[in-house]
Specification:
heterodimer; A: alpha+beta; Butyryl-CoA Dehydrogenase, subunit A, domain 3; B: about 375 residues; Butyryl-Coa Dehydrogenase, subunit A, domain 1; Butyryl-CoA Dehydrogenase, subunit A, domain 2; 3 domains; binds flavin-adenine dinucleotide
Chain lengths: ~400, ~375
């Protein structure tokens, strides 16, 4: 409670600042699905990004010298809450691809001072977009069997091989990649984590179209691509511990809600009343759907309460490792089920692909539902999370040779 | 598989080999990419006519073979496996059922031969809003002179863009929600006041929204006595549901086959992924669910063929159980394929999208659980 009181002054400061600086033209913009420039608010968006970045509030817990604000987790939470309350959003994480959520925290932990100074400010200001080259055609869940080769050529590593499902590779400036630096060592002992610029002759990307229609990820080819030795993150041949940590940050970033939830989004049950109709006493006219809807709402509550409980138990410091797998799977289940229920609720209006016969919300719901199927696949599939829980938390014997 | 007659086995084999050779899913994909309003290929449709499939439900006196519902279901299942697009279901299955059950002798002799030879494409125009609620039919039919005037609209009408004739459920008396007061009319597509708009759905088939603005039809367009179509409409819809059950079995069975194949070939951690017990058990559960769903799907068709008095229950059971299986199966099809399952280039997404459309047509599983409970009296 005392903590809360101490934060009150800070809360007022944040709230006043957001009021004064967030352009009202950006209110209601859904940055996950709408482009600011096509909506004619590109300049306002850039201005807001710059202001928030200058304050370090896009990455509030990062040290000031690297573009953050050096704040505590509770203070960062206040910033998130006040931004949401004002109908605003933090534009910086989505502008950086995997930068804010995964690459940045990993550089903070494993990077040299030079690496921090070189890479973090560009992420904190939202100017540098990062992608992650981990998966390969034959190394998905079994990431450690990756085959992309990196050969020592003096000042640099020369990379050859293929990555796949690289989100945002075609629009990214930098890539964090896991590569094999010692082909003779055991699978996990010969891997290193390197960082390389995407704009070079040795890197080629080919977008892959998704079932949802868009192409957010790519095949990425390295043909004598160059990664400077100074951009080796962590020790040579110790990339496995770097990437394990990175994946924990990925899970962590996925335990809260995917993307920024629309502040003014109408709750599902209210929409359901319109699509389905109600009985005289206000109950949804479809009793079967009603009970499944409420089950999903309760599952969502249970998820949120678990996040709060775990955070409280860790005294404000979120423990990235232990609970992340549980939370990732529960978040995924809640979101995917909600997407199914949304379509079911919309009935014949929940099957549209394009055209005026369907509203924008209806069409978006279909695309979101399809894209949401990926949640249980990326960042370690639902099955892999269960393997981690049974092995690392419950101490059951493992059935595959995995980490 | 139900114990099939020799003839049914022949038709099954014919349908399976024809569909995989002539209309493999790659053909559907190519058509989807072009996005034509009439969402099927003319040669596909002509071939179906030539093979006699359009006459399976039509009595011999009108040029059909009258082989029955299980036989038609066998064909629909095989087409479902390849996502073959055609007006076969809308016209020769639902349309023919409606004409046989509700049409006057004049209707039958005028239209059934045209359904059989493919020159007419019939479709049922029933739902008006986002949900399947036949009793809430509100499209108005007002008696005027020697005929009726129809006003209102219909949504998600199957093959609505290609149809030559609509069988329209209309309210000729009473109000939305009443069981009495429904009538069925046959309305040719070119009738003045009728207009249609393509609905672009995620399964890329040819649905339409159809508007009726003071559409005048003669009383000869009326199927059966006025105001009393409620019961026969239910019988028509039940046949439609059983047919969808058969197609859904096909979609689900193919999704299962693709998944099983992947479980046996994709390697991670130095082993085929099917060797991981979590996935092995999931495949076992899905297989069991498919077997149970198949029993329900086939039973519905057989009950219709034997004119039993529990057709309604059997059809709701089919639509609910096969629907639930296919729903889970289509999700697992993506999940077990991992990243590849999410790509448009791979076929999984096509099956998932088709699955959700089929699941919702003529009542989703929740609708049919509710209806089943009502039929049991609780
Ligand atoms: C939208 C999207 C974005 C992505 N973005 C990126 C990115 O930016 N960078 C990147 O490097 N990768 C990215 N990925 C790739 C993602 O990490 C992989 O898809 C994931 O690791 C699974 O690998 P896979 O696709 O090869 O599936 P596989 O590993 O082949 O798995 C197939 C199925 O087998 C199951 N399975 C595998 N092993 C086991 C086991 N031991 N026990 C039980 N079940 C098992 C899986 O859970 C899955 O259901 C992305 C994927 C998607 C869908």
């Amino acid at each position: 409670m005392t903590e809360t009181n101490n934060l009150d002054g800070f809360r007022t400061e944040v709230s006043d600042w957001v009021q004064a600086n967030f352009p009202s033209t950006l209110k209601g913009l859904d940055i996950m699905s709408e482009s600011p420039s096509t909506k004619g608010v590109g300049a306002d968006f850039s201005a807001w990004q710059k202001k928030l970045g200058d304050k370090g509030w896009g990455t509030p817990t990062w040290p000031k010298e690297y573009g953050g604000a050096g704040l505590s987790d509770p203070e960062a939470k206040v910033i998130r809450q006040e931004i949401a309350k004002a109908g605003a959003f933090n534009p910086i994480p989505p502008m950086t691809g995997m930068g804010v959520t995964m690459v940045g925290p990993t550089i903070l932990e494993y990077g040299t001072d030079e690496q921090k100074a070189k890479h973090l400010p560009g992420i904190a200001s939202g100017e540098v977009r990062w992608c992650l080259g981990l998966s390969e055609p034959n190394a998905g869940s079994d990431l450690a069997s990756l085959a992309t080769k990196a050969v020592d050529e003096g000042d640099a590593f020369i990379l050859n091989g293929q990555k796949i499902w690289t989100s945002g590779a075609h629009i990214s400036h930098w890539c964090g990649a896991v590569v094999r630096t010692d082909p003779k060592a055991k699978k996990r002992d010969g891997i290193s984590f390197v960082m390389l610029p995407m704009d070079q002759p040795g890197v080629e990307t080919r977008p892959i179209k998704l079932i949802a229609g868009s192409s957010p990820f790519c095949e990425t080819f390295f043909n004598d691509a160059r990664a400077e030795k100074t951009d080796l993150l962590g020790d040579l041949n110790d990339g496995w511990s770097v990437v394990k940590r990175l994946l924990q940050h990925e899970r962590q970033s996925q335990t809260s809600s995917p993307g920024a939830p629309k502040v003014d989004a109408e709750p599902l049950q209210e929409q359901a009343k319109r699509y389905v109709g109600t009985e005289e006493d206000g109950r949804l006219a479809d009793p079967d759907l009603r009970l499944r809807l409420v089950r999903n709402l309760m599952d969502g509550e249970a998820h949120k309460l678990t996040v709060s409980r775990i955070t409280a138990e860790a005294r404000g410091k979120v423990n990235v490792s232990a609970a992340a797998s549980i939370l990732k799977n529960s978040m995924t289940r809640v979101a995917q089920t909600k997407a199914e229920l949304t379509l079911e609720m919309m009935g014949h209006q929940g099957v549209g692909w394009e055209g005026n016969q369907f509203t924008d919300d209806e069409l978006q719901s279909v695309r979101d539902w399809l894209f949401g199927k990926a949640m249980s696949i990326y960042g370690g599939s639902a099955e892999i999370q269960n393997n981690i829980i049974s092995k690392n938390i419950l101490g059951l014997p493992e059935t595959t040779q995995q980490g | 598989m139900a114990a099939l007659t020799e003839e049914q086995t022949l038709i099954k084999d014919q349908a399976a080999s024809w569909a995989s050779a002539e209309t493999p899913v790659a053909k559907f994909r190519a058509m989807r990419n072009e996005g034509p309003e009439q969402a099927f290929a003319q040669p596909t449709w002509s071939a179906m006519v030539d093979m006699g499939w359009t006459g399976i439900l039509v009595p011999e006196e009108y040029g059909g073979s009258d082989l029955g519902y299980l036989t038609f279901g066998i064909v629909l299942e095989e087409l479902g496996k390849q996502l073959t697009a055609s007006p076969l279901f809308a016209s020769a299955y639902v349309g023919a059922s409606a004409l046989v059950l509700a049409g006057t002798d004049a209707h039958k002799s005028e239209y059934l031969p045209k359904i059989v030879d493919g020159s007419a494409i019939f479709t049922l125009a029933i739902d008006e809003g986002p949900r399947h609620t036949p009793l809430r039919t509100a499209l108005k039919a007002e008696a005027k002179g020697d005929g009726y005037v129809l006003s209102g609209s219909k949504t998600l009408v199957l093959e609505g863009m290609a149809a030559t004739h609509f069988i329209v459920a209309a309210r000729s008396s009473g109000k939305a929600g009443d069981a009495a007061g429904l009538s069925l009319f046959i309305v040719p597509a070119e009738t003045a006041g009728l207009s249609r708009t393509q609905m672009k759905t995620m399964d890329s088939r040819g649905y339409a929204e159809v508007q009726f603005e003071s559409v005048e039809v003669p009383s000869s367009a009326l199927m059966g006595p006025a105001d009393q179509a409620g019961e026969v409409l239910d019988e028509i819809l039940d046949r439609a549901r059983a047919g969808l059950g058969a197609e859904m079995l096909g979609v689900g069975a193919q999704a299962f086959a693709m998944t099983l194949d992947y479980l046996k070939t994709r390697k991670q951690f130095g082993a085929v992924i099917g060797s991981f017990q979590a996935l092995g058990h999931r495949a076992a559960e899905l297989f069991a669910a498919m077997e149970l769903a198949r029993s329900c799907g086939e039973a519905a068709l057989q009950e219709i063929d034997s004119q039993s008095n529990s057709v309604a229950k059997a059809c709701s059971l089919s639509k609910a159980k096969v629907g639930d299986f296919m729903h889970e199966m289509s999700n697992q099809l993506i999940q077990i394929h991992g990243g590849i399952g999410m790509t448009d280039e791979f076929d999984a997404g096509l099956y998932l999208k088709r699955a959700r459309l089929l699941e919702g047509l003529y009542g989703n599983p929740a609708y049919h659980r509710d209806r089943y409970a009502r039929l049991l009296g609780f």
